[in-house]
Amino acid sequence: MHPTPLYCAESARRDTAGQLASRFALPLVAQRPTDGYWLELGPERLELVTSAKHGAVYAEFVEGAARHRREQGGGRGQPVAKAVGLKGAKDLPRVVDATAGLGGDSFVLATLGCHVTMLERSPVAAALLADALERAARDPSTQDIAARMTLVHGNAIDWLAQQAALPREARPDVVFVDPMFPDTDKKSAAAKKGMQAFQHVIGDDLDSAQLLEAAIAAATVRVVVKRPQRGVPIEGVKPSVVLDGKSTRFDLYIIKALRPQDFADAD
Ligand SMILES: C[S@@+](CC[C@H](N)C(=O)[O-])C[C@H]1O[C@@H](n2cnc3c(N)ncnc32)[C@H](O)[C@@H]1O
């Protein structure tokens, strides 16, 4: 896949564009592309845009759906919070979101008080996330939440393998996994939300089975896999528990059940 160019027409933001280009190895171009997909840094935010008729895609933690979630969200009773184990928890888990995407799930968990490390391998998604985080860190209504979110640009399979070698207390409690599957459910859902550009640029995640393995080896409490309600589970280890929702399902892999030997001393 060709690298996605980054264009900035705002003279006041050229330095920021240069920093984004070098941090995420994006080619900075002097002219607005005339076809394909590109990232454009405007006066307000960074967007993924295209010459075709798709809407612009960006990550957002301050306004719109994120504001609604922050103000009216279902608290620890909402499905993603239950899946991660927040309901009734005394201590909040340290969460790694291994497939951060545009950060929607990470944001919900950070809003509920979790510290979330967001791993993202796509330079486009990672740049969109970095821009949204920077805006959230400047806004008084989101700065505390943004302070609990850390972005790491890289492949989660490698990053989690390093974590698995650390002592138990240094490893993440929960690893959250939401890959882009080559199935139709998520594609049509993404298409409805005007996310075709994101889908096209990121592509399918064909290595989810390796990612699940790496997540199980690194997590100390559980791995949570988010799937469309009727989607197939990730190949390999079977989920210990399945939480069904209306459109989304969470497959839980409980470490104590999968690796009881790790808990022998603690019991
Ligand atoms: C379906 S999206 C995640 C959406 C996200 N849960 C949200 O709320 O916005 C999947 C993302 O995971 C990323 N991804 C998949 N496998 C990865 C890996 N091994 N390492 C890092 N990122 C990965 C993809 O680049 C893509 O951006």
Q: Which key terms come to mind for this protein?
A:
267 residues, alpha/beta, Rossmann fold, seven-stranded mixed sheet, four-stranded mixed sheet, 11 helices, binds S-adenosylmethionine, rRNA processing, methyltransferase, cytoplasm
How would you describe this protein?
With 267 residues, the protein is of the alpha/beta class. It folds into 2 domains: 6-50, no CATH class; 64-263, Vaccinia Virus protein VP39 (Rossmann fold, 3-Layer(aba) Sandwich), CATH 3.40.50.150. The protein contains 11 helices and 11 strands. The chain has a 7-stranded mixed sheet with strand order 7-6-5-8-9-11-10, with helices on both faces. It has a 4-stranded mixed sheet with strand order 2-1-3-4. A hairpin with a 4-residue loop joins strand 3 and strand 4 (46-50). It is globular. The N and C termini lie far apart (50 Å). The chain binds S-adenosylmethionine (SAM). S-adenosylmethionine is lined by residues 99, 101-105, 119-122, 125, 155-157, 178-180, 202, 205, 211.
